[in-house]
Design brief:
about 250 residues, alpha/beta, six-stranded mixed beta sheet, globular
């Protein structure tokens, strides 16, 4: 069984289409949320996700775009993009986003969440202490959590016997093997707006039989995605940051 893991598409259709091309041969695609926000193709991204993904979770931008989260939580650029997205979303896609859950246990193999198990929509896992708080909430029999939200491709590996946490960067891609001696939080990065100083779209593939998770980075048509943002009248910063990976 092979799972494609994607997150934080943020209305970037060019990045999403490129990643899904590489995931044609996996058994299931899991989306960890933030389908919309920032980018210029919220409806098209929602429709692709609805068509392709077996599990889809709600992200904080998704929640805000359908009136389920206070806009004051967001910075001014994000807020402007959410307000624009609200005006663009079709009735069907509003219904779809409102229907999403925040946490899923996938085939008793792993937990999927947008933010963290402590705060599924809000909390950013950006350090060892925060990672450990989610690991301690993992249900019995599960050793892997996939999360998004930070737009940073990395992993946290907890060895309970030694009480040691290892942090692993996937800013250039990479892989990790799953051991029965450890617990894992894996962030496969952002499809549509990476923030680990690598502009390439980021996603993961979990091969259950091989017990291996690979994080891959792909180039896509950034110029087209950025031009659409500019033409939509969205903040210029949202186009420029695509080139910087931040």
């Amino acid at each position: 069984m092979r799972y494609g893991i994607i997150s934080d598409i943020h209305g970037n259709l060019e990045a999403l289409e490129r990643v899904l091309e590489e995931l044609r041969d996996v058994d299931e695609v899991i989306c960890l949320g933030d389908i919309v926000g920032y980018g210029a193709n919220p409806n098209e991204c929602c429709e692709l996700i609805r068509e392709v993904c077996s599990v889809v979770l709600m992200g904080n931008h998704d929640a805000a775009a359908v009136g389920m989260m206070d806009l004051r939580w967001f910075n001014p650029f994000a807020r402007d993009a959410i307000k624009w997205t609200m005006q663009q979303l079709s009735h069907e896609n509003v219904k779809f986003l409102k229907s999403l859950g925040s946490v899923a246990r996938v085939n008793n193999l792993f937990i999927a969440v947008h933010g963290s198990l402590r705060e599924p929509l809000e909390e950013y896992i950006l350090g060892e202490d925060i990672a450990l708080a989610s690991i301690k909430r993992m249900p019995s029999g599960v050793r892997v959590i996939f999360c998004g939200h930070t737009h940073i491709a990395e992993a946290y590996k907890w060895f309970p016997r030694m009480k040691v946490m290892e942090r692993i960067s996937f800013s250039s891609g990479g892989s990790i093997r799953i051991s029965d001696e450890a617990y894992y939080i894996i962030n496969c990065g952002s499809v549509g707006q990476p923030r680990d100083y690598n502009f390439r779209a980021s996603f993961g593939i979990y091969d259950v039989e091989a017990r291996e998770i690979k994080v891959r980075r792909l180039e896509y048509d950034i110029n087209k995605a950025a031009q659409k943002i500019e033409e939509a009248g969205l903040p210029h910063t949202l186009a420029q940051r695509l080139f910087l990976g931040m």
